[in-house]
Amino acid sequence: MNDQFHSIEDFWTDDSFLDWVLGKDPAAALRWEEWMSGNPQQVPLMKEARQLLLSVKVKEEVLHPLEIQASVNNILSQLPVAVPKPFWRNWRMAAAAAGLLLLGGGGWWLTHQPSTAYQAVSYAGFAEKVNTTSAQLRVAMKDGSTILLDPGAGIRYSTVWEHARTVYLTGKALFDVKPSAAPFIVNTGDIATTVLGTVFSVTATAAQQEVIVSVQHGKVAVKNNHATEVILLSNQEVSYEAGSNSLAKKLVPAPLTQVNVRHQEDFIFTETPVTTVFEKLAGVYAVQINYNPDALKSCTITANLNQEAFYDKLNLICRALGLSYRETDGQLFISGEGCNEK
Amino acid sequence: MNISRENTYHLSEEQITVNWQHFLEGGSDAFGRIIACYYNGLFQYGMKIHADSAFVEDCLQDMATTLWSKRQQLSRDVHVKGYLFKSLRHKMLRQLQTRKTQQQHLHLWLQGYQPPFNAEFSIESSIIDSDADSQRKQQLHACLQQLSHRQQEIIYLRYFQDLDHEQVAAIMKLSREATYNLLSATLKRLRSQWQLLPSAFSGWILFVLEKKI
User: CB–CB of B81/B17 below 8 Å?
Assistant: First the structure.
């Protein structure tokens, strides 16, 4: 620190002054406090130098952190690699050959796996895990999520970002995702699936150029390259064909129960109003069923439907009461004459 | 003049050192963290040299690839930020130079070629500014806009990117002395055009004003 400052540029060229004003060195502030008490006559000039320095701005549009992340990922993915990459080199072909399945929820991890059962390849900021065994393989992620890979399936994810939750997947895998503020994104070819809910389960199939994403529990957003986005709820699916813009939502072929059906008598009905039965179906499978309650108010059901799958239940009910249903946009619409008063 | 904005990917000096070591040993994660830490700064700097974001991104990619390939020859004790800025500047110069010579059907590397540099400076005004203050700020702004490319660049690197003398010298390929001279000539020019009162006198006036308040 110079003892004598005669002009503003004397301050502007002083390293200690810049350390203080530009906030680089916290200790510098203390030194300048001392300096001020020792040189009261120079304080005004110093204050002017400081104020002017701070008031000069440069026009810049700061990049969004996600833009930076994308750019750095792009840089890393194009680095020449020294280690072999047996899986991702061919991963598009592998994707074409393999189905893709993501499931979630607890209790899936019953099979014990030896820890050396996969090829773990790390290159250019990405970790890759490929299941080369003939059994399912569990991979634990940093955020606490777990991925169960089917034989031949592989995932790739960036290791640069501590909390990023973006996974590139091919083959079949079950995902058990830990709830977090950061979205969990599964990329499969042109399709990105974002988990919006906490408990979720998705089934996606990548065959040739087609991807089917189907949700078993929770809520996910599916987006294609054209940024068309569809929100899927439980038991809904969407299929996507490369080159097409459409993401058509429908119900999965075999909806799963969404709540624990603890009691055997849950689907045993005795003279039960059909509206109650539909409410029960809608609740247990988290499927929206639309009907006209007035038309159906005198219809009742007596049946044991505990063993039947969702559509079998629905078909039996509709056949018994002379009703029909159609499915639009992932919802069911019941129509029919209704029942005669007995 | 500080750009004290939040950097999501900020690393402390110790973290930079550790990540740099990992990178030299082939750690691509560490390399990614370092690039992310300085990406915004490098990008902004690049845009001042050539305001074409796709071009700047290409040069950054190119720079990263080169660094990665020659990581075994890099020094452990390098000033990382300064080195990255220097590398980017060099890449951009090469590219711009190639474009230029191709356009002119010349195939030579012009020694001492310096890139253009355009920073858009502005002066933040404050509601507590007196008339004299705001007049002074306007004058300063006008002066900043009239600086040469080199003068703008040195001001930008020194005050906005917070690089020290030695780094600025290395980036701009100048000797320490030449850097010092350029900076002080720049500041002198600012002051002369600024029509400052003799500084002791102006200091006295401010002192009196402050007493009044």
Answer: no
Query: pLDDT per residue over A303-327, tens digit each?
Result: 888 888 899 889 888 888 888 898 8
A21 to B2: CB separation less than 8 angstroms, yes or no: yes
User: Which residues in chain B are contacts of A8 at CB distance < 8 A?
Assistant: 187, 191, 196, 199
Range of weakest confidence among A45-54, A111-120, A175-184, B183-192: A111-120
The residue of chain A nearest to residue B208, with distances taken between CA atoms, is: A44
In single-letter form, the type of residue at position A305 comes to: L
| A91-130 residues touching B, CB cutoff 8 A | 122-126
Whether residue A37 lies within 8 A of chain B, CB to CB, comes out as: no
* Residue A115: count of CB within 10 angstroms of its CB: 8
Angstrom CA distances, A13 to A2, A21, A320, B185, B191, stand at 10, 12, 91, 11, 13
User: How confident is the model over B11-40, as a mean pLDDT?
Assistant: 92
Minimal CA separation from A91 to chain B, in Å: 21
3-state helix, strand, coil split of chain A in percent (to 5) is 30, 30, 40
Q: What number is the average pLDDT over the span A238-256?
A: 76
Cβ-defined contact of B64 to A160 (cutoff 8 Å): no
**Which residues pair with residue B161 across a beta bridge?**
none
Strands of the sheet with A118-123, listed across from one edge: A118-123, A126-131, A154-158, A166-170, A184-188, A191-195, A219-223, A229-233
Place of tokens 């799963």: A256
A36 in contact with B, Cβ within 8 Å: no
- How confident is the model at residue B126, as a pLDDT? 67
Contact A52 B68 (CB under 8 A): no
- Asked if A15 reaches chain B (Cβ–Cβ under 8 Å), the answer is yes
Size of interface A-B (CB pairs under 8 A): 149
* A48, A54, B14, B125, B209 from B213: Cα distances, Å: 15, 22, 45, 20, 6
Q: Is B61 on the interface with A (CB under 8 A)?
A: yes
Helix axes A65-77, B53-69, angle to 10 degrees: 50
Q: How confident is the model at residue A123 (pLDDT cuts 50, 70, 90)?
A: low
Residue for token pair 């639309």 = A290
State how far Cα B205 lies from the chain centre. 34
d(CA B172, CA A135): 59
Q: Is the pLDDT of residue A230 over 70?
A: yes
Residue B210 at interface with chain A, using a CB cutoff of 8 Å: yes
Spatial CB neighbours of A182, under 8 Å, sequence gap ≥ 6 = A143, A163, A164, A165
CA-to-CA distance for B14 and A170, rounded, in angstroms?
A: 38
Query: Quick check: A341 pLDDT over 60?
Result: no
Which chain A residues are closer than 8 Å to B156 by Cβ? Answer: 58
Confidence of residue B21 (pLDDT cuts 50, 70, 90): very high
pLDDT tier at A21 (50, 70, 90 boundaries)? confident
What ipTM was reported for this prediction?
0.82
Place of tokens 């069911």: A332
